[in-house]
Design brief:
single chain, mainly alpha, elongated
């Protein structure tokens, strides 16, 4: 899990400006994506 502060530093690397709200939105979407990946892996492991 990445902290908000670390996520913001990563997203603002190279001098890009990213608002706190945008950082939260991006992090939320990444966590949802990670959850989907975990679900797919679990389903794949259940198949014979």
């Amino acid at each position: 899990m990445v902290t908000f502060e670390k996520g913001k530093r990563i997203l603002q690397a190279g001098g890009k400006k990213v608002s706190d709200e945008k950082v939260r939105q991006i992090m939320d979407e990444l966590y949802k994506f990670a959850s989907i990946i975990d679900d797919v892996k679990m389903i794949k492991d259940e198949k014979p």
